[in-house]
Amino acid sequence: MPDPTGTTALTGTPVPTGLRSAIHRVDRSTPAGRDRAVDALRALAILGVVLGHWLVTALVADGGVLRTASPLRYMPWLTPVSWVFQTLAVFFLVGGHVATKGYASARARGTTYGQWLRTRMGRLLRPVAAVLTLWAVATVCLLVSGADFRTVHTLVKLALSPLWFLVVFAGLTAATPLLTRLNPLWPLAVVLHVDVIRFGLGGPAWLGWVNLAAGWLVPYALGAAWTRGELERPRAGRLLLGGGAAATAALVMWAGYPASMVGVPGAAVSNLDPPTLAAVTFGLAQCGLALLLREPLRRGMRRPVVWAGTAFANLSAMTIFLWHQTSLMAVTALGLFAGRLPGLHTTPDSLVWVAARTAWLPVFGCALALCWFAFGVHERGPRRLAGRPSRVVRVHRGPGGAAPGEAPRA
């Protein structure tokens, strides 16, 4: 961390003057009343999703065809990895909090619902156009060049899989005025009844898709309760963490739910596709932990270099989220020119694969950085004329271009 001498506390390495100046400028430009823990939780959720996908998504080269696989299928003892990196509930918790707070602030300023929603949807959906355009062109090129249809289907499905999150999140955002007073127990009850009918009474499988909205509405409604001040006491976080963890353990051990909190190819039931009661109770435990971490995160965010990194992650949240799967696939596809590489194209069935995949993570990171340089403009907005401050400098509006009390970008 920077100290008054201009060196980092961890290594003693001098921080370049320009970088140090930019870091402190970001820190000074942030409003004193901004809750930096909110931005820190979003950044941690982004990191969890990205690392989780990079660690448990394998593209195996099998007879000229790329197929998906997962180390969790071959090495079930790695299941706890999914507990660490499946952080979607935190996304929805933070999203519900900032959307509710932002809508209340907009109403106080006289902004109409339509104006507020257009602003929110623009921040969410503008970066999607670039992803859809690139993959539409790539799909046509691959098919015309004679690529196996199964390979193309696998690649497109993985590349566009993050979009389901945006559909659900956009729907909940649009419904925010109706959800500001919703008790999270109501959507939780819906999830419970859907699973009882689906698994206990032999109901139709399609009924599970009701949980796609109801399941993620639970943490979203918790975010609204956070805005109302109902979750400020540590007791709330401890109750959610302990109760959610106990309920999840009971469902896995005695109700037959999968232990993995991410989908595993070939498994009869997935906790995420669509969300199950176990995924929702696990999300409650995550939300409880997130609430308990708020104060430590607030202390950590007082360090300028940590806050600057967090602010950057929030400004780039949509780009990182939408392009991280494409980065993985780009490295995998280019790697095929060098042959069948361990950890990249091989079956994920041993510790050798785990070690090799871990070594590939920095390469995936570099590919994602290239995607950020190429496509981040769709999230950051066009460059401004000389003499006009950029959005990064105007941090008084906060990560995501949000004014104090307004929702940062999702």
Describe, in short, the structure shown.
The chain has 410 residues and is mostly helical.
Question: Secondary-structure blueprint of this entry?
Answer:
Layout: H1 17-29, H2 36-56, E1 58-62, E2 65-69, H3 71-74, H4 80-85, H5 88-108, H6 113-144, H7 149-160, H8 163-174, H9 176-179, H10 185-200, H11 210-227, H12 234-254, H13 277-292, H14 294-300, H15 304-315, H16 317-335, H17 351-375, H18 377-380
Antiparallel strand pairs: 1-2
Write up what this structure looks like.
The structure is a single chain. Helix content is 64%, strand content 2%. With 410 residues, it is an all-alpha fold. The protein has one domain (34-397). Strands 1-2 form a two-stranded antiparallel sheet. Mean pLDDT is 87; it is low at 1-12 and 384-410.
Which percent bin holds the helix content?
55-70%
Task: Extract low-pLDDT stretches.
Answer: 1-12, 384-410
Inertia-based shape: globular
Q: Could you give the distance between the termini?
A: 27 Å
Number of helical regions: 18
- Going across the biggest sheet, name each strand in turn: 1-2
What class would the helix/strand composition place it in? mainly alpha
Q: How many individual β-strands? A: 2
Largest sheet: 2 strands, antiparallel
Q: In angstroms, what is the radius of gyration? A: 22 Å
Strand content: under 5%
Mean pLDDT: 87
Order of helices and strands: HHEEHHHHHHHHHHHHHHHH
Domain count: the total is 1
